[in-house]
């Protein structure tokens, strides 16, 4: 086995650039996942590594050996395609032995075949036919076939797509264990973030034909390089914000930001597990219906947050460093309209299309970190949806001016649709300046 280095690979089809200088480095014995949305160029990159496509520029090396101009059969690259694609008329053993040298002694071939079947947990299955196997077993035979000639690198091209959901997790585990036992250097191509994060040692996030970040799964999740990566890898609630001195001011108050040294107008990205929801303390003011003139735009029957200042301009003007103030009627839509997502298909995006966002900072306390300052009422919203997943639950909360926040709670959520909740934030938040 050997490491893989892809340097500045460029590829165009009919004049359209699909790869625009893609670089990837995978250490020997390491498992890398190339993660990106459909059409970003993942399969093209894989085919160039395998030698099925020729790069217009750039290079591919396996260990010390540059293979950019070599045909596939001279590269020592094994591939596991999307569907196992076993030869239906050949036994499992003959499928696995297919890529082994023709002239090799029989005993050598069959011992290597048995060794590889053992690696993938299918010892004794050699005489079966492919149709006698489950989808997951077929995928493992395809992996054994790819491993048999001892390739420098094994490429997995979305190999779990054809498996049903319940089987997928198990087969992923089996495949990961098998390649680790074999000491293989692996590149998995996938658009499934859960698959990439759970299987890989290194996640390489691809966007528009380039790798934009390559790091451990934990690093990519905790320190995404831009808003596009933050929303593509894991769920994120994105809110307009203004940052100064390491504090980002947004509709949820003044939040301590991770020390990325960036300030100005932009966005905070919160992970749903950072968002805390608590029932508002019962107080004298609670329960007083909001006057009609201050009713929310969406017409929800909101209560006045206990002790919070009314949503009038004078209470919200934070001067040059805070986001523009707004009243219930006159929303400042903040920096750049609504999309600075950087081209990745975001998921779990907190801001509803066309909703108001930006101002509304209720912190009059001038605090200097997360925790919403001092003396200010916590921002509130009403629970719009609760989704229970067993191990956790997702709670969608709509704030007064239509901003949507999603929170994750461990186990069942203690909230119900219609509940008023106070919204807090745990730990520092990511801040990204607006593009341009
Ligand atoms: N042989 C080809 N001829 C012309 N265009 C191609 C060819 N192969 C790929 N493309 C185009 O290149 C772009 C990237 O395709 P590619 O299959 O690499 O993306 P992908 O990220 O793997 O997407 P998916 O996850 O949907 O498979 C697409 O727009 C595709 O239509």
Radius of gyration: 27 Å
Q: What does the largest sheet look like?
A: 6 strands, mixed
Determine the CATH superfamily of the largest domain. P-loop containing nucleotide triphosphate hydrolases
Mean pLDDT: 79
Q: Taking strands numbered 1, 2, ... along the chain, how are they ordered across the largest sheet?
A: 6-7-8-3-9-10
Number of helices: 8
> Could you give the order of the helices and strands?
EEEHEEEHHHEHEHEEHHEEEEEEEEEE
CATH topology of the largest domain: Rossmann fold
Helix share of residues? Answer: 10-25%
Strand content: 25-35%
The CATH first-level class of the largest domain comes to Alpha Beta
| SS content category | alpha+beta
Structure description:
This protein is of the alpha+beta class and 436 residues long. It folds into 2 domains: 4-222, 3-Layer(aba) Sandwich (Rossmann fold), CATH 3.40.50; 238-433, no CATH class. The protein is 18% helix and 28% strand. It is built from 8 helices and 20 strands. It has helices at 42-50, 92-96, 106-119, 135-147, 165-182, 193-199, 217-222, 227-232, and strands at 4-13, 16-26, 31-35, 57-62, 65-66, 77-80, 153-157, 186-190, 202-207, 210-215, 237-244, 247-250, 253-256, 264-270, 275-278, 380-388, 392-399, 404-410, 420-425, 430-433. A 6-stranded mixed beta sheet has the order 6-7-8-3-9-10, with helices on both faces. Strands 13-12-11-14-20 form a 5-stranded antiparallel beta sheet. The longest helix is centred in the middle third of the chain and has 18 residues, at 165-182. It binds adenosine-5'-triphosphate. Adenosine-5'-triphosphate binds at residues 13, 18, 36, 38-44, 191. InterPro entries: AAA+_ATPase (IPR003593), ABC_SmlMolc_Importer (IPR050093), ABC_transporter-like_ATP-bd (IPR003439), ABC_transporter-like_CS (IPR017871), Mo/tungstate-bd_C_term_dom (IPR008995), P-loop_NTPase (IPR027417), Transp-assoc_OB_typ2 (IPR013611). Keywords: ATP-binding, Nucleotide-binding, Transport. This is ABC transporter ATP-binding protein. Residues 4-233 form the ABC transporter domain. Residues 343-374 have a biased composition (Gly residues).
